[in-house]
Amino acid sequence: MPWPALGVAALVVALFASVFVGAADITVWDVLTGGLSEAHRVYLVEARLPRTAAAALAGASLAIAGLLMQLLTRNRFVEPSTAGTVESAGLGLVVVAILAPGAPIVIKMIVAMVFALAGTALFLACIRRVAVSDSFIVPLIGIMLGSVVGAVAAFLALSRDLLQMLNAWMLADFSAVLAGRYELLWLVAVLGVLAYVTADRFTVAGLGEDVATGLGLDHRTVVALGMSIVAAVAAVVVVTVGALPLLGLVVPNVVSRLVGDDARRGLPLVALLGAVTVLVCDMVGRSLPGLLAGGSAGAGEIPVGTLVGIIGGAVFLAMMLRGVRNG
């Protein structure tokens, strides 16, 4: 079976399973036969379906953002959480929470996007100025930049008693996703389509500025477009559900081993695998505490950002160690 078809099949299974996994006793049979109680019907429409859609959209979009960053920086260890992009979006949210605490979510998203774009631009300026040849140094620069930005955000949040809110933004949790509170995520689907339409330009830009310019491509414009998409995706996801650390690192690297570095060929599979990864992690986060508590329905949940971060951190470490061994 071709990889895209396998990815679509996995996504369909994950979407279907996500709808029926959780504390509420909702079965497929009840849905098919119309045997749902009114309470379960409301819960399904208002909470379970929006949660499933939010997980799929957030996972797909952040995986695409990671692919774009890796192509445009020509480094497989770069993604929004290793380039200061996510932390910059968090800083923007803290600033708007201090200056305009009653601002609507769209304003928060715009401010977070501006800060994320500025943080990404600063990261690109840093790696251009340093001009490193070691691929390990680039993400370390991004991680250090992100640490500085994150420290500033934490200081401001602590001074205004917003630290708990900042922590919620920095770690994705879908337990509070309801109808009417996640729809902003559909914007990232539009950005994903835009990334696919311009995928060939990103592939050429990934060959380097000299090669891209020699082929007639405006390298700076394409990089600006790609990083704008990344910043917008990071802002929307952080504002709506919180950050999913290192997802954009793991998924594109897995896909590149399967289909190569052609963005047009790899981007759909990256989106599918990103969505499936987050959906599976979300289901595990919902189910694992109850299983460990002997089937208790009130055992709580593990935030999906925690599980994604554990997987991403392990893969990141394994990639670095493998790179060191290979010289």
TrEMBL record:
<dbReference type="GO" id="GO:0033214">
    <property type="term" value="P:siderophore-iron import into cell"/>
</dbReference>
<feature type="transmembrane region" description="Helical">
    <location>
        <begin position="53"/>
        <end position="72"/>
    </location>
</feature>
<dbReference type="InterPro" id="IPR037294">
    <property type="entry name" value="ABC_BtuC-like"/>
</dbReference>
<feature type="transmembrane region" description="Helical">
    <location>
        <begin position="184"/>
        <end position="202"/>
    </location>
</feature>
<feature type="transmembrane region" description="Helical">
    <location>
        <begin position="109"/>
        <end position="127"/>
    </location>
</feature>
<keyword id="KW-0472">Membrane</keyword>
<dbReference type="Pfam" id="PF01032">
    <property type="entry name" value="FecCD"/>
</dbReference>
<keyword id="KW-1003">Cell membrane</keyword>
<dbReference type="GO" id="GO:0005886">
    <property type="term" value="C:plasma membrane"/>
</dbReference>
<feature type="transmembrane region" description="Helical">
    <location>
        <begin position="84"/>
        <end position="103"/>
    </location>
</feature>
<protein>
    <submittedName>
        <fullName>Iron ABC transporter permease</fullName>
    </submittedName>
</protein>
<dbReference type="GO" id="GO:0022857">
    <property type="term" value="F:transmembrane transporter activity"/>
</dbReference>
<feature type="transmembrane region" description="Helical">
    <location>
        <begin position="136"/>
        <end position="156"/>
    </location>
</feature>
<keyword id="KW-0813">Transport</keyword>
<comment type="similarity">
    <text>Belongs to the binding-protein-dependent transport system permease family. FecCD subfamily.</text>
</comment>
<feature type="transmembrane region" description="Helical">
    <location>
        <begin position="222"/>
        <end position="255"/>
    </location>
</feature>
<dbReference type="InterPro" id="IPR000522">
    <property type="entry name" value="ABC_transptr_permease_BtuC"/>
</dbReference>
<feature type="transmembrane region" description="Helical">
    <location>
        <begin position="305"/>
        <end position="324"/>
    </location>
</feature>
<keyword id="KW-1133">Transmembrane helix</keyword>
<keyword id="KW-0812">Transmembrane</keyword>
